[in-house]
Design goal:
With 309 residues, the chain is mainly β. It folds into 5 domains: 6-44, no CATH class; 59-127, SH3 Domains (SH3 type barrels, Roll), CATH 2.30.30.40; 130-185, SH3 Domains (SH3 type barrels, Roll); 192-250, SH3 type barrels (Roll), CATH 2.30.30; 258-308. It is built from no helices and 31 strands. The N and C termini lie far apart (76 Å).
Length: 309
């Protein structure tokens, strides 16, 4: 009796700049027969971050520090005049000159000698590639920026690979490609915010033809902002842990407004008198945050006990 064996055959195919990996498991069921079970294809785009070239801003660095508070002397001798005391951990630059147990080095504008035993030198890779986006930007296949392959959002951390003219080659979690250099900076920009000018709806996408209604935001509320879609006139904002789209926000600050209950009464789940239910009561004189006025049903939207009704 023959024991069943599992054989894996790998076929590597490169076509049109896209690498595809086919894995075809073959299960032996007899001495001279086999049954292919499944073929799995994984496509790797040339713009995937895994295919990015190494960054020119990650370099090997040699650094020397003092391991104690250390005198910098005019000559290699303990009797030589001190040019100053370097605090422990000071980074210095070795000149390469030595005299016995002494090393010549530069500290700021001063050059002198210190005991080698109190100097520590290490070599490591210094990553100076970290950058941040100052705005939502398209990512392009070349420095000419003619063929768009993706996008990157405001405040996203990216890795700078190289610079050519006015374009920067960056790597994100999803792509590597080229963006306008003026949108790439060393320090993460501050968050930007928008204010709700009037209560309105929020949606799943920027496109009114394909979006889904997700809920409402209310007058004078403040939300973190990421980008503006001019074609559909919608802002992308951060609401309750997710990015959504709306046409009711603006950068202009809005002062919250309040209303007072004129008499005891009920509060309802919606503006419509036919499709709402009583969800509570309000007492005459109660001051509440105001959100919107529905003229058709003659109802105010208010925030009562932390809930919009």
């Amino acid at each position: 009796m023959h024991m069943a064996q599992l054989k894996l055959r790998y076929v590597l195919v490169a076509t049109l700049g896209i690498m595809s990996l086919f894995v075809t498991p073959l299960v032996a069921v007899g001495a001279n027969s086999s049954v292919p079970s499944q073929t799995v294809q994984v496509s790797l785009s040339p713009y995937d971050p895994e295919n990015a070239p190494p960054s020119k801003y990650i370099k090997k660095v040699t650094e020397t520090k003092t391991t104690e508070n250390l005198n910098l002397r005019k000559s290699p001798s303990t009797s030589a005049a001190s040019l100053g005391v370097m605090p422990k951990g000071t980074i210095v630059k070795l000149t390469g000159q030595k005299s016995g147990t002494w090393s010549q080095l530069t500290w700021g504008s001063k050059t002198g000698w210190s005991a080698t035993q109190y100097l520590s030198t290490r070599t490591y890779l210094k990553d100076d590639s970290v950058r941040y986006m100052t705005r939502y930007s398209g990512i392009y296949s070349t420095a000419a920026r003619t063929k768009r392959i993706g996008s990157v959002n405001l405040r996203t951390e990216v890795s700078l690979l190289e610079v050519s003219g006015t374009s920067s080659h960056i790597k994100t979690a999803y792509y590597h490609g080229w963006v306008d250099s003026k949108n790439v900076v060393r320090t993460r920009p501050a968050k930007q915010y928008r204010y709700v000018q009037k209560s309105g709806s929020i949606y799943s996408t920027m496109n009114p033809k394909t979006d889904a209604y997700l809920g409402r935001i209310h007058h004078a509320e403040k939300y973190e902002y990421r980008r503006w879609d001019a074609a559909n006139r919608r802002d992308e904002i951060y609401v309750n842990g997710r990015w959504v789209w709306t046409s009711t926000t603006n950068r202009d600050y809005v002062t919250p407004q309040y209303r007072y209950a004129q008499r005891n009464g009920s509060v309802y789940s919606a503006a419509s008198k036919t499709n709402s239910k009583v969800v509570g009561t309000i007492t005459r004189g109660t001051r509440v945050r105001w959100g919107a006025w529905d003229s058709a049903n003659r109802r105010d939207e208010i925030n009562l006990h932390g809930k919009w009704v």
